[in-house]
Inverse folding.
């Protein structure tokens, strides 16, 4: 009996997953009170993932419906296709809900890491459509691991108390958080288990070379998603208050109006320091931060709206 390719992906990407999650979780506080009273920085973060999910899901549907798709790939995709897991439409809805009418929070700055990620993904899926298993596993299973934690923080920050007539899902939709929710009474837990079962079912039909390709692509995905997250950190507009790192790594506000459009850009630990945190003791990095914080400049600000990891370590 073949082991699930999902287990192989998890084992190969564990260290990359840790690095990516630590980077994101260090940046998340900038999107939450007390650092901002507005959800617009969160919207900026998820706006960078909309083109990724859109391109991925478009490629999946294209291969699924194409008459030129090989019988093996067609079988894989038909088994794995769970429409309720698709996220691009939910992301689009959330951005429409969160952004001001003029969309001023979005920037036109170049995003070479994001563009490279999408171009590589499209080229790779065209040449080797079995790599869709890498993207499907990482992009969807992430929402049931770190994604639940992120949702809890966002709910606490931006959702109003539920009325007797309002369900949690409806409240989330009204507050631009539908990306994190799934249909059904089990909030997607049934979808997760079904998808994992299907991934196990198709694993036996993969050749050794395909399994190797899928695992290698998964490592690439995690590595370059980290690069996309750090790129977001350099594209945040000047719409948050001036802050500096405290001893425990939590950002500390300096009294400016967080909702004021002219507030100066946040300063946080430089992106390279975020990555080093997984390798060195906190005390050493705090000492480094003390020196780099004096000269790193205002461009080291960050926000992201999603934790992208893998499920079931």
């Amino acid at each position: 009996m073949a082991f699930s390719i999902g287990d192989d992906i998890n084992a190969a990407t564990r260290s990359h997953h840790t690095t990516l999650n630590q980077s994101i979780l260090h940046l998340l506080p900038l999107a939450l009170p007390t650092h901002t009273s507005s959800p617009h920085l969160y919207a900026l973060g998820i706006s960078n993932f909309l083109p990724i999910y859109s391109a991925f899901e478009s490629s999946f549907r294209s291969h699924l419906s194409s008459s030129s798709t090989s019988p093996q790939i067609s079988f894989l995709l038909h088994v794995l296709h769970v429409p309720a897991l698709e996220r691009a439409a939910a992301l689009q809805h959330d951005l429409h809900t969160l952004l001001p009418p003029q969309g001023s929070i979005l920037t036109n700055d170049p995003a070479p890491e994001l563009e490279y990620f999408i171009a590589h993904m499209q080229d790779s899926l065209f040449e080797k459509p079995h790599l869709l298993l890498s993207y499907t596993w990482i992009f969807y299973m992430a929402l049931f691991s770190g994604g639940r934690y992120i949702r809890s923080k966002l709910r606490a920050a931006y959702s109003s108390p539920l009325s007797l007539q309002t369900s949690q899902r409806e409240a989330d939709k009204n507050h631009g958080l539908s990306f994190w929710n799934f249909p059904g009474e089990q909030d997607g837990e049934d979808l997760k288990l079904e998808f994992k079962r299907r991934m196990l079912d198709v694993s036996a039909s993969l050749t050794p070379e395909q399994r190797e390709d899928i695992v290698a692509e998964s490592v690439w995905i995690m590595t370059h998603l980290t690069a996309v997250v750090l790129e977001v950190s350099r594209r945040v507009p000047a719409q948050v208050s001036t802050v500096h790192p405290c001893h425990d790594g939590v950002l500390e506000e300096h009294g400016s109006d967080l909702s004021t459009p002219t507030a100066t850009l946040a300063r946080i630990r430089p992106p390279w320091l975020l990555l080093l945190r997984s390798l060195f003791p906190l005390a050493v990095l705090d000492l480094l931060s003390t020196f780099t914080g004096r000269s790193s400049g205002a461009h080291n600000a960050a926000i992201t709206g999603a934790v992208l990891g893998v499920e079931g370590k």
